[in-house]
Each structure stands twice: as C-alpha cells, then as structure tokens.
Design brief:
Blueprint: H1 7-40, H2 44-74, H3 87-127, E1 140-141, H4 144-147, H5 153-160, E2 164-170, E3 177-183, E4 199-208, E5 216-224, E6 230-237, E7 262-268, E8 272-278, H6 281-296
Antiparallel strand pairs: 1-2, 2-3, 4-5, 5-6, 7-8
Helix pairs in contact: 1-2, 2-3
C-alpha cells in the first residue's frame, strides 16, 4: 500500500494553499483600496460619482478573488488521503470548480439585485449631505421651482425629459451657487447639435418584418426637445415580438400637502421591476406622462 504522496501532488497542494492565501489577500486589498480612495475624496459629489461608478464593480472583483480562494480550498479536500493522480483527483477538481463558480454566481446575484438598494441609500446620503460654501457658510438645496432660475435652458430641457437631474445649492449670505449633475430617471441620448442629453425617440416604424431567414428592420426617429434637431437610426429585429400589452389608463394623482415623497414602481416583462422616487405629485405625474409617451411613441 502506497503511503508516500507523489511529488506532483505535493506541489499541487502547496500551490492551492498559497493561492488561496494570495487570492484572499488580493480581495481584501482591493476592498481596502476602494475604501481608501473613497475616503480621500473630499467633495460630496465626487464621493457620489465614485460610489455610483466603482463600488459594485470593485466589490465584484473582491468576490471573484474570494471565489477563486474558495475553489482552491475545496480542492484541498482529503489531500492527506490522496497519494496518486487518479479518478478522485479529477472528481475533486470538478467539485472545486463548481464550488468556486457557485460562490461567484451567488455574489454576483447579490450585487446585481440586492445591493443596489443598499447602494441607493449611500448615494442619497452623499447627494443630500449639507454643503458648505467657500466662505464657510451652510448652503441650502433649492426646490425644483426655485432652481430653474440658475439653470440654462438646455439644462431645464434635460430635466424636463428626465434624462439629467440637477441639484442647485446656494449660499444665501455670499451668493455662491453650486450646481451638481446627476443621472435622471429616463434615458435620453446626447444631441450632436446642442450637446445636451435631450434626444428622445418620437416615432418608431417597422420597415421590414422579421422572417425565419432574415431579420427585420426598425427605424427609430429621434428629436431633440431643446434644439429640435432630428435623426433616424435603423435597428435589426432578430425575432418577432409578442403583442404589446394593452396600455392601461394612468390615474391622476390628487394633491396632498402631507406627501413628502412619491415612489413609482413599474413592472416590465423585459426589464423587471424599476423604482423611481419624486419630491412631489406633479413630478411623478409628469414622469408617468413622459414614460407612457416613450413606450407608445
């Protein structure tokens, strides 16, 4: 009966141990570097942008490192009982790959579906953190009605189509004004003429229906709500679409002075659930009108 382990397995097991330690350390370093870079940003808007752009991406890198470390640790199962490269070696290798993939997959699901709720709370914290002017005075966040006087016409147009949202902070003592730019609720393209994100779909038409042998063609006609520039883009339709659900009529909101926030939940058969929050009923109703128009244009 052989009790001496083969040199290959000695090196293999040592590699798995060292690799697990290294990958765990790399994951921890990525996490700490993320936190360090975030703490080094002094501007609240800068923190918002960094978290919004980098946090989920960096956390995925962390969990990939941990998944690889888990893979290597699982591969060490019963290493003292395995003395030669035989069937159990490959079975254990398969099990370790499956375990590491499972860890990475579960982490990805958490970051894609659960963590955005946590991330949204972080983003709100930094977005509405009280600002201080260069003079050292506390700044006030203007309401939607008050801020328009400080926004250019193009900026107001971007807000009107919900592609961009602007926050205007003002120091009422020194007169200093700070304008922060945030992504809006609905997607709009950048207009090549005026440069604002106000290019929206106004009409769609199918010029060629799809078949089994060839894709169809859809023409989307865009128009800028600010400078009125127009453009058309052709898109391929790879498969026939199912009939659209009949649109249900929108119910008008009643005015209520006691409402602090309006939350809109939209269920889509293609993109799942989406949540939108507004400061008042008028904004929510306007958003629903815009969203309805976009879907039926």
């Amino acid at each position: 009966m052989q009790t001496t382990q083969s040199p290959f397995l000695d090196i293999w097991n040592l590699t798995m141990v060292a690799g697990a330690i290294v990958m765990t350390a790399v994951g921890v370093i990525i996490y700490l570097l993320h936190k360090l870079r975030l703490s080094a940003i002094k501007d609240y808007k800068g923190k918002y942008d960094f978290i919004n752009e980098k946090e989920i991406r960096n956390y995925k890198k962390v969990f990939i490192c941990f998944a690889v470390a888990a893979l290597m640790l699982i591969n060490l199962y019963s290493m003292g009982k395995l003395h030669t490269v035989e069937v159990w070696f490959f079975v254990r290798l398969f099990m370790s790959i499956a375990g590491g993939t499972l860890v990475a997959y579960v982490a990805s699901l958490i970051l894609d579906y659960y963590y955005p709720t946590v991330l949204n709370r972080k983003l709100k914290k930094w977005r509405y953190m009280p600002r201080t002017s260069k003079a050292g005075n506390k700044m006030r966040l203007l309401s939607e009605e008050e801020e328009d006087v400080h926004l250019e016409e193009g900026m107001q147009a971007e807000e009107n189509v919900f592609s961009i949202d602007y926050d205007v902070w003002i120091d009422e003592k020194s007169g200093e004004v700070k304008i922060d730019k945030y992504p809006g609720h609905l997607q709009a393209l950048k207009c090549n003429s005026c440069g604002f994100y106000t290019m929206r779909v106004v009409k769609e038409e199918i010029t060629r229906h799809p078949s089994k042998d060839a894709p169809g063609e859809l023409i989307k006609n865009f128009q800028c709500s600010y400078c009125k520039s127009v453009r058309a883009t052709a898109y391929n339709i790879s498969t026939k679409e199912a009939d659209d659900y009949r649109n249900q009529g929108m119910h008008s909101f009643k005015r209520n002075k006691n409402i602090d926030m309006v939350r809109v939940e939209i269920h889509s058969s293609t993109s799942g659930k989406k949540f939108f929050e507004f400061q008042n009923l008028e904004q929510a109703q306007k958003f629903l009108d815009e969203y309805d128009a976009e879907k039926n244009s």
